[in-house]
């Protein structure tokens, strides 16, 4: 039996740096004008998605992973491995770094490490991001952090819509003001803040920094995450491979017309970032549009996409 797509209700997180782009651009019903994150496809305990429709309506993705592993091709593991977010950086995010699996397992209660990647959906004209640092040795890194030489330490890159960045664990990074991003990452919520611009929250408190951990896990000298990109043009669709890496492969699908596809991965995470289309499985048609997030489970087999839309698609 062909397995139908699993549509998910987004979860939202208010953040000191958030804004309204998730409502303005995606039509989401956000909790406030400081909404920074849409957890679009998540089984993480800090924000598991609920299935929006179909036979599993009302169940969480974490419950499906636990009780219906056949939907995910029988993939092993004690937790759903990936997490898709859409981030509205209305202001600069803190400069941060994430641990790898081994460090997180030891120091963060068995949490996964966090390798991630960003697809720039939209950004203001002069937008940039922090990606890496200039220190050549660990001692130089520590000296520059302790002296607050952020201009000397941080490597800033100009960005534009459609850019893609692969951010392995150990990479110093930060999204900056005026950026809307789809992030594919390991299912982890561990972040070590290095610098937060000395800003304060509504109570006048500075947010906690995690310098000891950050110094432990930062890769020195910085190494760019390598994304081996390629493009395949088929009838009705252009598939751009953004990255094939240890924890995930990520693609940009540009549908224009009628595309016939086959689901061969254990499961596919799909987020529509522009336009609308019909997803056709046999005699069943589903409408998808900008802001729709769903999983194509194992044995989804052959399907069609008809319309004009863009998706970010990932799998383990």
TrEMBL record:
Question: What EC number(s) does the entry state?
Answer: 5.3.1.8
- Gene Ontology molecular functions: mannose-6-phosphate isomerase activity
Show the taxonomic lineage.
Bacteria, Bacillati, Bacillota, Bacilli, Bacillales
Domain named Phosphomannose isomerase type I catalytic: residues: 7-119
| Record-linked PANTHER family | FRUCTOKINASE, TRANSCRIPTIONAL REPRESSOR MPRA
- Family under the similarity heading: Belongs to the mannose-6-phosphate isomerase type 1 family.
Q: Which cofactor does it need?
A: Zn(2+)
Boundaries of each Mannose-6-phosphate isomerase cupin domain copy?
238-316
Gene3D superfamilies on file? Jelly Rolls (2.60.120.10)
* Highest taxon of source: Bacteria
Q: Which reaction does it catalyse?
A: D-mannose 6-phosphate = D-fructose 6-phosphate
Q: Which organism is it from?
A: Bacillus changyiensis
**InterPro entries for the chain:** Carb_Metab_Reg_Kinase/Isom (IPR051804), Man6P_Isoase-1 (IPR001250), Man6P_isomerase_Firm_short (IPR014628), MPI_cupin_dom (IPR049071), PMI_typeI_cat (IPR046457), RmlC-like_jellyroll (IPR014710), RmlC_Cupin_sf (IPR011051)
Query: What is this protein's record name?
Result: Mannose-6-phosphate isomerase
Keyword annotations from UniProtKB, A to Z: Isomerase, Metal-binding, Zinc
């Amino acid at each position: 039996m062909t397995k139908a797509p699993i549509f998910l209700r987004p979860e939202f997180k208010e953040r000191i740096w958030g804004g309204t782009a998730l409502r303005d651009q995606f039509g989401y019903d956000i909790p406030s004008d400081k909404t920074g994150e849409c957890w679009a496809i998540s089984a993480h305990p800090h924000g598991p998605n609920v299935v929006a429709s179909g036979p599993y309506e009302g169940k969480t993705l974490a419950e499906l992973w636990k009780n219906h592993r056949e939907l995910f091709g029988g993939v092993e593991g004690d937790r759903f491995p990936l997490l898709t977010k859409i981030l509205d950086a209305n202001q600069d995010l803190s400069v941060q770094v994430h641990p790898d699996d081994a460090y997180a397992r030891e120091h963060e209660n068995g949490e996964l490490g966090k390798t991630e990647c960003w697809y720039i959906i939209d950004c203001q004209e002069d937008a940039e991001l922090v990606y890496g640092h200039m220190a050549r040795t660990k001692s130089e890194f520590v000296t520059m952090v302790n002296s607050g030489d952020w201009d000397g330490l941080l490597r800033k890159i100009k960005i534009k819509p459609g850019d893609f960045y692969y951010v392995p664990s150990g990479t110093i990074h930060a999204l900056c003001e005026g950026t809307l991003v789809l992030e594919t990452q390991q299912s982890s919520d561990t972040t070590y803040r290095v610098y937060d611009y000395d800003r304060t929250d509504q109570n006048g408190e500075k947010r906690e920094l995690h310098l000891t951990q950050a110094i432990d896990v930062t890769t020195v000298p910085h190494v760019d995450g390598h994304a081996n990109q390629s493009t395949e043009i088929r009838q009705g669709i252009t598939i751009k491979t953004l990255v094939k890496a240890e924890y995930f492969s990520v693609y940009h699908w540009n549908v224009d017309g009628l595309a016939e596809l086959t689901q061969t991965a254990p499961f596919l995470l799909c987020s529509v970032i522009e336009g609308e289309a019909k997803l056709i499985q046999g005699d069943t048609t589903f409408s998808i549009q900008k802001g729709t997030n769903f999983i194509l489970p194992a044995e989804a087999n052959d399907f069609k996409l008809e319309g004009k839309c863009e998706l970010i698609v990932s799998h383990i």
